[in-house]
Specification:
mainly alpha
Length: 685
């Protein structure tokens, strides 16, 4: 799904920012009646193996690869859907089968020496074939007697150890290909530390572990590669990714973007607001920031630039909005499922707790966009827009599957079963209209979309299993927690700042799931020991696990958005960081005011929600320098202090924050420019 930027998609995007006839351009004088409504159709899906087999004539070696890939994707869907509905096999068997199937796909989809599996074969292809053969050998070695294999953990045979080493190498190589060298090196460093921990100084010192004991433990137990992260990906995450792939192929992406344009396009800064709204809606089914950037950004960024937003700001808005997809229930990032297991609660509890913070996050970004538009004098989008009524009438039924997820989770279904029945619901709902119907080709393509999207998650989870296993063997977790407490002097705020810094630094080159898991194992126990409510401590780590994606100097999501906008990457990352400032402050609110996570009495929860929403808007006004009119520096400073006061727990600080806001409003009301205010109001009509 994250690669849908070809063919017709590019043509549609060009049409939306003036590249095709029938759409008005700035200064053209086109009116709503004269221009055809902007209507998004995401037609340029990535070419799948099924497409290749159907559309590419002749007989080439790539046809065999396409056939293998097609069969594998069907097998992966069948395995996971069947095991979810009927019941999973023994844990070790189920998780190893899950991982090995995805590893084979990884070595096909990301070949060595070629940019794509469709490219002509090269000598390095022999290495790919060897790795695929090694993966199949490991799979059958485990399948021949998984129970006996695990019982030999303390009395392993040489072949057991050889297979263990092979599996570790396969996981690291797949990680390198899919994610990059940085994440591939991390498990190697942790393994080296585990073996040499006895010789390490200070904090890094730990009990000695032989290399053979380490690799056997990582492979033969559920405390390593086949541990908790792979459990989550095999049981929950993949099903939800499959759900998103089916819903997207049925046309939900079109519906969300058109609905967002219909709701916000006619107001000042409309396309940017549409970016926020569509990313929030799309995030409910993707759980991926990168997918959001590429899909929604391909349409909203050109519209924002056309309206007058600077490219770096447009890209920053889209990257921050897209990042919220990991935070927005009901389908969040993979880390949310792992969070539920760490705490020992259901995923439904995590989704409920994440709702208010996600709303505050998007309200803050929405307010940033509004105040920037007002500050720079941008007007509303003057072209024709989709009709709310028509959009709901033609495709509103695509919201039913999202409602189904919420219904099944609320009824007490496990996350896996809720995902399963939601997949069934998508298929049933898609049949209501011909243009959304999942015919055999759409269905098969959705299979590969789902596998391709889940691929990085699965490999990252296997890599995380190595890290967790090494931390357990070396005792580094306990040592690190003690060091955090000692370094902070027992002061909670300092411990939180250290945790936040660690999360941002790790996030510069590591996926959010890995960052969260690392923080959860190394740092969260220290926060809990300092008195933080466990739910709040884990949510703190979860939020800071994703913020490295928009934080300079390596902001992966912001850089992706910069590419779509043709904007300077570093300037985009700085803009994204400023626009997403609320996300940096929200985690501290969880700790000092856990009511935002639905912990406490309903009156306290309602008050915390209200003050949090007001604070989000005021914080945006302070950052953008506009509330009723342009804000002086002292007014911006007062607004920032007021926002912090509202975010801080306590009725007294809330009153102080409101009083400070009143001072600024009174000041701005006296100096406002009636003519400009009237113009802005007229543009909002």
């Amino acid at each position: 799904m994250a690669e849908t930027r070809k063919g017709a998609l590019s043509r549609r995007a060009a049409a939306m920012h003036g590249g095709q006839e029938g759409h008005d351009r700035p200064g053209s004088g086109a009116t709503d009646a004269q221009a055809a409504p902007v209507e998004v159709r995401i037609e340029g899906h990535r070419e799948t193996a099924f497409d290749y087999l159907i559309e590419t004539p002749g007989l080439r070696p790539q046809h065999l690869l396409a056939l293998v890939l097609a069969v594998l994707t069907i097998a992966i869907w069948a395995f996971h859907l069947f095991s979810t509905y009927v019941g999973q096999a023994e844990a070790y068997t189920h998780r190893s089968t899950h991982l090995m199937l995805f590893l084979v796909v990884a070595f096909i989809m990301r070949p060595l020496g070629r940019s794509d599996w469709r490219d002509p074969l090269v000598p390095a292809t022999l290495i790919d074939l060897a790795l695929i053969g090694a993966t199949l050998f490991v799979f059958f070695y485990i399948r021949q007697d998984a129970a006996a294999l695990q019982l030999r953990v303390l009395f392993t045979r040489p072949m057991d150890t050889a297979v263990a080493i092979t599996t570790i190498v396969l996981v690291i190589e797949a990680t390198r290909r899919l994610i990059g060298w940085i994440l591939a090196v991390i498990p190697i460093l942790f393994m080296a530390h585990t073996v040499f921990a006895e010789s390490m100084p200070g904090l890094l010192s730990g009990p000695g572990t032989s290399w053979r004991q380490m690799v056997d433990t990582l492979f033969l137990t559920t405390d390593g590669i086949f541990g908790l992260p792979i459990q989550v990906s095999a049981s929950f995450v993949v099903i939800f990714v499959f759900f998103g792939a089916l819903l997207f192929r049925s046309g939900a992406g079109d519906f969300f973007i058109n609905m967002a344009l219909a709701l916000t396009g006619r107001y000042i800064g409309g396309p940017a607001k549409a970016s926020v709204v569509s990313s929030a809606m799309f995030g409910t089914l993707s759980g991926s920031a990168a997918a959001n950037v590429v899909i929604t950004g391909s349409f909203t960024i050109p519209l924002m630039k056309r309206l007058g937003y600077k490219p770096h700001f447009a890209a920053g808005v889209e990257s921050v909005s897209s990042l919220g997809g990991i935070l927005m229930p009901p389908v969040m990032g993979a880390g949310a499922f792992i969070l539920a297991l760490f705490i020992g609660v259901s995923y439904w509890d995590v989704a409920k707790a994440a709702t208010i913070p996600a709303v505050i996050y998007f309200v803050s970004v929405f307010a940033m966009v509004h105040f920037e538009a007002a500050r720079t004098g941008l007007t509303a989008y003057t072209g024709a827009l989709p009709s709310i009524r028509q959009t709901l009438f033609t495709r509103g039924y695509l919201l039913i599957p999202l409602g189904a997820i919420i219904f099944f989770l609320a009824q007490g279904y496990t996350a896996a079963m809720a995902g399963f029945w939601s997949v069934v619901t998508v298929f049933a709902v898609s049949l209501l209209r011909g243009d959304t119907r999942l015919n055999p080709r759409k269905l098969l393509n959705a299979f590969e979309d789902g596998v391709a999207t889940a691929l990085t998650i699965v490999v990252a989870c296997a890599c995380a299993g190595i890290v967790i296993g090494c931390i357990t063997l070396s005792g580094l977790g306990a040592s690190f927690s003690s060091a955090i407490i000692k370094a902070s002097g027992g002061v909670l705020l300092i411990a939180l700042l250290l945790t936040a810094l660690a999360g941002i630094v790790l996030g510069l080159g590591v996926t959010p799931t890995i960052v969260y898991i690392t923080l959860a194992v190394l740092v969260v126990p220290a926060l809990i020991e300092l008195g933080v409510e466990p739910f709040a401590a884990h949510f703190f780590a979860f939020y800071y696990g994703i913020l490295g994606n928009i934080t300079p100097p390596v902001a992966i999501v912001a850089f992706a958005a910069a590419g779509v906008a043709n904007a300077p990457p570093m300037r985009t990352a700085v803009s994204a960081t400023a626009t997403g400032l609320a996300a940096f402050i929200l985690p501290f609110m969880f700790v000092y005011g856990p009511e935002l996570l639905l912990i406490g009495e309903w009156e306290a929860i309602a008050l915390a929600t209200l003050t949090g929403l007001v604070a989000a808007v005021i914080l945006a006004a302070a950052i953008r320098g506009y509330l009723i009119t342009h804000a002086a520096y002292w007014e911006r400073a007062v607004l920032f202090i007021a926002a912090i006061a509202l975010l801080a727990p306590g009725f007294d600080t809330d009153l102080a924050g409101l009083a400070l806001i009143g001072v600024v409003i009174l000041s701005q009301w006296r100096k406002r420019d009636p003519g400009k205010t009237a113009t802005s109001a007229e543009g909002a009509q």
